[in-house]
Amino acid sequence: MGLFGKRPVKGISEYELKAHGNRLTNHLHSAFNDHNTKHIRDQKRALLDTALGLVNDRDTNMSTTQKHGVIQADEFEGVVGGFEKKGIFSKDEAAQLRRTAHDALGN
């Protein structure tokens, strides 16, 4: 525990997903640009956004300075890995999502 309470939880915050013109979200969405029709791309992007939004809730072990939930590495892997196992995301798409989110998940 830190001097002023709990330490911030590592992961992707709502701020990171929305800040700077949705830069991180746009990078995550770019994983679906290959070999898909526009309709399928849009569906996969919406599915990812919805899944990350459901995970992005406030946890009890979070610091009081964190206003919203954080998508932690294991939660992100659960979402991406689950969709990959079901065949919704291809192996290449899942790998690109993991690479894109790697740095953000560590902060």
Describe the overall structure.
By secondary structure, the chain is mainly α. The protein has four helices and two strands, in the order E-H-H-E-H-H. A two-stranded antiparallel ribbon has the order 1-2. The longest helix is centred in the middle third of the chain and has 18 residues, at 38-55.
Keywords summarizing the entry:
107 residues; mainly alpha; two-stranded antiparallel sheet; 2 strands; 4% strand
Strand order of the largest sheet: 1-2
> Radius of gyration from the CA trace?
15 Å
The SS-based structural class is: mainly alpha
Main sheet attributes: strand count, strand direction, barrel closure: 2 strands, antiparallel
Total E-strand runs: 2
Secondary-structure blueprint:
Layout lengths: L11 E2 H16 L8 H18 L14 E2 L1 H13 L5 H16 L1
Helix pairs in contact: 1-4, 2-3, 3-4
In short, what is this structure?
This protein is mainly alpha-helical.
